[in-house]
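Structure representation.

___
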Amino acid sequence: MSENDQINRIYQASCFILKEIECLLASNGLLLEAGVTQFAEVRQSGRLIACAGLDGNIIKCVAIDQQHRGSSLMLRLITEVTDMAYRNGFERLFLYTKPCNIPMFTDCGFSALAIVEGRVTLMENSTTRLPHYCQTLAEQFRTGEKIGSIVINANPFTLGHRYLIEQAALQCDWVHVFVVREDASRFAYRDRFELIKAGIKGIENLTLFPGSDYILSKATFPAYFLKEQGIIDECYTALDLMLFRQYIAPALGINHRFVGTEPFDPVTEKYNRDMADWLFRAPSEAPAIQVVEIPRVEKCGGAVSASRVRKLFDEGRMDLIRDLVPEATFAFLSEQANHR
């Protein structure tokens, strides 16, 4: 950086500043992504020459003016946005960039987790965190020819979720169930996890795992949590599924992944279809994972789904919810209804 360069932190960008950032990103072949509200920026004689955005613990929208690349500017920029994240309470950071930029961000302390060739790379500020997580998973390894897996949000846990898990358990020697940890749903993660734990009682060949940043999180698949805007990004889908295939599944010997058919949610339905491509057909050094789609169980004239339960809950139809959810979920929702 030269003496004329000034680095700033922007916690609430004005429309004018956002327009400048948008133009700089466009010159780098990038878009200003939703959710990025905080920025570190570098200006030279008042002109914006570099920026890096922050969305929770995810660094996005990193761009440097072409005339200023190849200097120490990137390191200073990433150091600044990392410090912003630390001040917000985040130490575990993820970063999106183009594959060609991997060496540059490696010099800034990040390591690549998954790559969609020619398009996007997911990196994190640690070389040991993911291997340590996989080692922790491996402690729950179970032997068997058919080891299944399910990733669920359960917002809230329904008899449909119970049916899916039961069917997987019947078909497999063992099933590993992962709970989405993000608190971006109607019901809090801690409540969802406890309802799942209560709802799967009696299924013996099963391990329930708490959520992580490496499975269906805002870091690996932000589009899953932006359904209302209809955002579907195949790059994010690929990153999430490649992480699962290359790291999570091998640690537990998983060779099957079970999903329910999705008649309501287009994002989840597309995600289910993409699973077969990335988990089974896509070239990879990791073993292929067979995707098994289980038809939704139907009750009271329709498919049982969490979205259906939420709609009935909002309408105050607790009488109809009783037939769609386990006892623990019904008790939880009844208590919630009494406090509205």
Observations:
- The longest helix spans residues 234-252.
- DSSP finds eleven helices and 14 strands in the chain.
